[in-house]
Write a structure and sequence with these properties.
The protein is an alpha+beta fold and 260 residues long. It contains five helices and 16 strands.
Length: 260
């Protein structure tokens, strides 16, 4: 793909029940997740009305036996998957699934940072740029947020591997550390933050854009999820919620704030 090196190119929900996830997220975010998947695999595309943002993969019994759990993951675009996987290991991370290729799709591997937080690396076969991460487009991912047990180590790792930089930060209240903004490619893609409490889940959390934050919050509750935070306004004027889906997977929704 033609996206800048080290930027997000795809999002993936690992779900024990893709049909139930389809019903939930279509209502919360206005997506159109495929009702069925191609023969031989259960992988359903997530359509936004203006291109795909990602896919839903079934969590099989075999995957669960290997330690996999329901979660959102993202793919970071690289030039050479095998070389990047080796560099990740050398930098204190791990390769969870060695690189493999899918004809016409690309080459990818599942890896983890030094704190054990998983994600994909990928070299796509397409000549077109991915639009899965787009901070303004409805249904796309607006923000990538890392909650980590060791923020300095994590920031150094992603800077070394993917060329990320951290030009700005916001001091969190009550001495809870810094919210450090991540610059990759042509601009900000998200932020990193230290874990705020022992029960806060570690990992990457993704905020997807929706038209109406109150409607999304209501759809979360009606669909069997839980709103953990919000709706509340963030510094750029948008409003957000942090929620869990019916399978306990944490995600975020962002929408425009009320007109002044």
């Amino acid at each position: 793909m033609t996206n800048a090196y080290g930027t997000p190119i795809w999002y993936e929900l690992v779900s024990p029940d893709p049909g139930a996830s389809r019903t939930f997220y279509d209502a919360v975010l206005g997506w159109e997740i495929d009702a069925e998947s191609p023969a031989g695999m259960d992988y359903r595309m997530i359509a936004t009305g203006n291109g795909n943002v990602g896919g839903v993969m079934r969590l099989t019994d075999e995957m669960a036996a290997g330690g996999a759990t329901p979660k959102w993951l993202f793919y970071i675009g690289v030039e050479d998957v095998d070389a990047t996987a080796a560099a990740i290991t050398a930098a204190g991370g791990a390769v969870l699934m060695p690189a493999w290729s899918i004809p016409g799709i690309g080459r990818m591997a599942v890896v983890a940072d030094p704190q054990g937080i998983p994600f994909y690396i990928m070299r796509g076969d397409s000549d077109e740029a991915s639009t899965a991460f787009d901070r303004t487009d409805m249904g796309k991912c607006h923000w990538n947020e890392l909650v980590t047990s060791d923020q300095p180590s994590a920031n150094a790792f992603y800077a070394t591997l993917f060329g990320w930089s951290y030009p700005n930060k916001m001091v969190l209240p009550d001495g809870r550390g810094d919210y450090v903004f991540v610059h990759a490619g042509d601009g900000e893609i998200g932020a990193t933050m230290p874990r705020q409490s022992p029960d806060q889940p570690l990992g990457w959390q993704f905020y997807f854009r929706a038209p109406d934050i109150e409607a999304s919050a209501a759809a979360v509750r009606d669909g069997g999820g839980t709103v953990l935070l919000g709706p509340h306004e963030v510094p750029d004027g948008d409003r957000i919620i942090v929620a869990t889906d019916p399978h306990g997977v944490v995600f975020g929704v962002v929408a425009a704030g009320a007109p002044a």
